[in-house]
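Hello,

Following up on my earlier ticket. Below are the two sequence lines again, exactly as submitted.
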Amino acid sequence: MASLRDIKSRINSTKKTSQITKAMQMVSASKWNRAESNAKKYVPYMEKIQEVVMSIASGSTDASHPMLMSRPIKKTGYIVITADKGLAGAYNSSVLRHVLKTIQQRHKSSDEYVIIAIGKVGRDFFINRKMHVELEVTGVPDQPSFSDISDIAKSAVNLFQNELCDELYMYYNHYVSAISQEVTEKKILPLTDIETSGTLTSYEYEPDPEAILEVLLPQYAESLIYGALLDGKASEHSARMTAMKNATDNAKEIIDSLSLQYNRARQAAITQEITEIVGGAAALE
Amino acid sequence: MKTIKVSVVTPDGPVYDAEVEMVSAKAKSGELGIMAGHVPMVAPLDIAAVRLKNEGRTDYIAINGGFLEVRPDVVTILAQSAERAETIDLVRAQSAKERAEKRLRENPDSIDIKRAELALKRAINRINIAETK
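Thanks for your patience. The regenerated structure is below:
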């Protein structure tokens, strides 16, 4: 059995760890609140832009744009959104595992795909596996504004436009609720599977549909990426919050069982002392 | 006078939402004035001010690109960023302008020239609008 002092120091160190995890849980909780409201604020913009893109792309069959056409696939682009740090439960690993599996299934050689990594964890993961990372962004703020990521979104869209890749997929954790996130695969480009729903307005175009698609489609693709990033941030903070809550709970459990052990050991020591005293007294008589 | 609903939406949230009598905007193809009952239309916008007239008052909004969608009863402006005249930080806009000018002066043949020019245009637009209020 461990000595009293050993148990005491283990209790103390576990207590300190639990204080840290508790603090991290609270920090994540407040970040999560803001991330969630950011993601919500973004919804009207996304809905609107989707509506307009849908009605233009499906309304006029004569309007064409390279971003609407599928071409033979020689190279596939993967945008992978992860966090910059760990300690968020399965948040990073589930996305990365999914991407790795997909890439291994779909491609035989490394010339067939390019990786765009957003987040340090994802970048290090691919670099460790000697997979080429074409573009990387790290240090994305917790409350990203559109201008923070417009560069990466533009360069990703440019990869497609310059025919450096022929399709573009995005992987991230979709935020379902505070306790559940879902790995999501989303095809960004080409924009072939735009669903048409509801009533479509037929517009007049000023000056013409092509010129509008020229402005609209890159903006749409960029906003898809931004939307996924906001979604991912909300998931990240909620995942970290849950992970840290579990850690705090576990620490409490460990402290409880250690305290029990400690009290038992103390009791045993006292009992032993008493027996010794009684034994000593008996020997004197 | 009949009014039309206008909403200016950016990725960072809605910026403006109100009923106005007339919307004037600068599209890539020229100035547009839109009043209630306009035919449905879509037009890309230039980096410029959007003017919203209502009951003798005019609100100015700095728009950085994006496009405008008109329906008979509602006008939606989707921009990557937009600021109302009251909320423009003049000091920040001026420093952005100086930064962009400096960049243009120092390396006039870099590939970032287009970006710097756009940044300059945005900054000048914001300064102009902030000063009209």
